[in-house]
Amino acid sequence: MHDPFPFHCPDWLRQRTEAFADYASLKTLPLHVHEVLLAFALYHFVYVVVSPVFSRYFFPRIYKTLNARTKLNWDVHNVSFVQSTLICILALWVIAKDEERSEMNWLGKVHGYTGAGGLIQAFAGGYFLWDLFITVQHINNFGLGMLAHAVSALFVFSLGFRPFVNFYAPTFILYELSSPFLNIHWFCDKLNMTGSKLQLYNGIILLCTFFGCRLCWGSYQSLRVFYDVYRAITAGELTLHDPELGKFSNGTTVDPSVIPASDIMQFAGDRTVPMWLAGCYLLSNFTLNGLNWFWFGKMIETIRKRFDPPLGTRKPEIKEPEKEQEQVLVEGISLQSAPQTPYANASGVHAADYLGAVKVEKNSHHLEVQQMEIRKRIGEDGRPMSSARAA
């Protein structure tokens, strides 16, 4: 299936990419470099413009109060939601419509190429290039785990431009089917919907899709690609028995130039797999699968903390005992348990005690002195005490 993208790479851009493509042995990159750059620009535009504008309009009170770290994560989650939705729709469409892909044998799966598969490689590569850019820029926020994920994912999907296992690009990108639900779960926490029915139902779907797509489907497809790569390594030099070339035994070595060309195998070259290439690819694939199993355990732990037992692990809130009210002391005398403070307009012996009223507010630790000073005070024995300034 040819590349369904509506326009081809401009000649000037393709020519400027060919030198790098030849150096890195990425033969099909010049055909898709415009899609890589467009995907990078699209996701960065969502990050810089769409997410802030959308969030300020629909969630003005919440978005403007976020600190810098949380706002960064908010915008990144918006990009992830857009990217995962878009790429999964494209991948499912290619799997359903690309007839050449469905007819590939193990040799075609390892060395073959279709334009539709290249489109998936390009949009996935553009996102992972953007992801690596943001992760390096904010490494203190995202950590080494996310950096390893970004590097491994970009490396794996870039190899499809050799082409190498281009067949598996739409297959492995379906990991992203769980990402929209992961983003919704995160937004529920930030929108004060923690423990809500929406978060509960979304959490169930998230665990099911993550387990089904990344752990079951992903692990199974990893075994398949490992087996296909192993067959390509052990096959060694190309052997062929083709009626159009005459009768050959299975051990006859054939020059690739005499093999009838096909659109699928047009970039296959000598059809051998170097050990370094197989090792790096399998190591990156293993890293991604390991991270998926680790994150699945963390997700279960995190979701359970949002809900009450028996399914959840949220602990009931323990109300802290009220702190004893501190006594307000004036010159070492407690005013909390004493009789009500007299005011200036009081009659009798207390009338001469103040020039103005000293007012003690309830539940307060300070005094409001409405006039300048205390001239004298009457002790418990009824005898006057020495005057002192109120402070």
Give helix and strand order, one letter per element, not per position.
Answer: HHHHHHHHHHHHEEEEEE
Distance between the termini: 88 Å
Percentage of β-strand residues: under 5%
Q: Spans of 5+ residues with little confidence (pLDDT < 50)?
A: 240-248, 256-260, 325-338, 351-357, 371-375, 387-391
Q: Provide the helix percentage.
A: 55-70%
Please give the count of helices: 12
Nearest-integer average pLDDT? 80
Q: So what's the overall shape?
A: globular
Topology of helices and strands:
Blueprint (H helix, E strand, L loop, with lengths): L10 H14 L4 H30 L1 H4 L4 H30 L1 H4 L3 H6 L3 H23 L1 H20 L10 H4 L6 H12 L6 H39 L39 H30 L24 E2 L2 E2 L23 E3 L6 E3 L7 E2 L5 E2 L6
Structure description:
It is a multi-pass membrane protein. Keywords: Membrane, Transmembrane, Transmembrane helix. Its main location: membrane. This is DUF887-domain-containing protein. Residues 69-308 form the TLC domain. The structure is a single chain. With 391 residues, the protein is mainly alpha-helical. The protein has two domains: 11-236 and 272-304, no CATH class; 324-391, no CATH class. Helices cover 55% and strands 4% of the residues. It is built from twelve helices and six strands. The strands form three sheets. Strands 1-2 form a two-stranded antiparallel sheet. A hairpin with a 5-residue loop joins strand 5 and strand 6. It is globular and about 110 Å long. The model is unreliable at 240-248, 256-260, 325-338, 351-357, 371-375 and 387-391 (pLDDT under 50).
